[in-house]
Amino acid sequence: MHAFACPNCQRPIHFEARLCPHCGATLGFDPMTDAFRFLADEATLWRDAQGETRDVVVCANNDDHAICNWLVEPDEPSHLCRACRHNRTIPDLAEPSVPPRWARIEAAKRRMIHTLLKLLLPLETKAEEAPGRQGLAFDFLYDPAAEKEGRPQVMTGHDSGLITLNLIEADDAERERTRAAMGEPYRTLLGHFRHEVGHHYWSRLVENDPSALAEFREIFGDERADYQQALQNHYNGDSNVVWTEAYVSYYATSHPWEDFAETWAHYLHMVDLLATAGSLELSLQLPEAPDSEEIEVRFDPYTASAATLVRHMEPLAFALNCMNRSMGQSDAYPFRLSDAIVAKLAFIARLVAANRQATPPLSMSAEPLSA
Ligand SMILES: [Zn+2]
Ligand SMILES: [Zn+2]
Ligand SMILES: [Zn+2]
Fold first, then answer.
1. Residue 36, pLDDT above cutoff 80
2. Distance between CA 138 and CA 197 in Å, rounded?
3. Is the whole-model pTM more than 0.70?
4. How far is the CA of 171 from the centre of ligand 3 (A)?
5. CA distance linking residue 10 with residue 17, whole number of Å
6. DSSP per-residue codes, 5-53
7. CA–CA–CA angle 265, 269, 273 (5° rounding)
8. What pLDDT score does 267 carry?
9. DSSP secondary structure letter of residue 265
10. Distances in Å between the alpha carbon of 62 and those of 72, 81, 119, 192?
């Protein structure tokens, strides 16, 4: 996503900020204008960088649990922001380990929702659901007894617009243990959200569109293959699908639905990374590059073709990994994109373009864009 500035002191702030680390102003993110506001005039008015006010209040999850930094219209019946109003179940906050884990989950979810809003994708809650307009909801579940006994717990997954996430995924040690046990190069809360919401958009945008479905089957395979059996084969190591360069991850080989969700997540990774690079006006010069051209993101990643995204992603990923290695960290972007993966990403970019909503839920004007 693009970088933000404190509307009071104009210094850079992160998307998660609730207080400006420089001037101490109380901050709130306004999804309608895609910018931060600060609380001014004896904490009565939310002003933007130009001093303009708008009638907004803090999300109820900020008021009640200090867990959200988004603003909401005062007449929104749920008093919850564009991200929080999709929650159906939250875990029992009386359990001491729950609030910090839930806070991490919500922070990752807000980043994912922000990208969906910028992509102008349809995004309804379950209350707004109508035929052909499946709503999106979240169940964040925790079983403390199961965690203590090390028993299998709640499964993270998707069913008809309902995303279930096991709270334990917000525990760094546990998530890293699972990542290593599964041999995955990348496992994050944000990655989980991007993957699971891919299943939602498959049923929202592909399943009931005969031409999209036909194209999906040509590119990803036939999803009518027995899903439960496919997953079982995958976990037992009995799958006859070999992990080749055509799949963005090993898990993507398990079933066409998982391939789609993994590739969808990857599309969101690229769009978000390139939006960040573009707004920071990063300019890269790789050593010994065949053409000594500087690499800059001078396009809108939210509407760009997969070919454009990938062409800029490759040098950016190399630079990102170089910097991570300089800090003794593992690669931030441990992926390689083959032509077959790019073809899958192209299907997703076309699907997003075909389903862009006419009314922007976020103003697109906050970002300086050139052609
Ligand atoms: Zn400030
Ligand atoms: Zn909220
Ligand atoms: Zn999945």
1. yes
2. 10
3. yes
4. 20
5. 14
6. E-TTT--EE-TT-SB-TTT--BEEEETTTTEEEEEETTTTEEE-TTS-B
7. 170
8. 98
9. H
10. 11, 10, 25, 23
| Closest-approaching ligand to the CA atom of 196 | 3
Where do we find the tokens 């005062």? 74
Ligand 2: centre distance to CA 265 (Å) = 22
Task: Tell me, in angstroms, the distance from the centre of ligand 3 to residue 105's CA.
Answer: 18
Residue that has been written with the tokens 């895609």 in this structure? 34
User: How far is the C-alpha of 18 from the C-alpha of 25, rounded, in Å?
Assistant: 8
Ligand nearest to the CA of 81: 2
- Which amino acid is it at 137? A
pLDDT tens for each residue of 55-112: 999 999 987 788 999 999 999 999 999 999 999 999 999 999 999 999 999 999 999 9
Region 301-308: mean pLDDT is 96
Q: Is 236 helix (H, G, I), strand (E, B) or coil?
A: helix
Q: Which two tokens stand for residue 300?
A: 């809108």
Quote the CA–CA distance of 86 and 117 in Å, as a whole number. Answer: 14
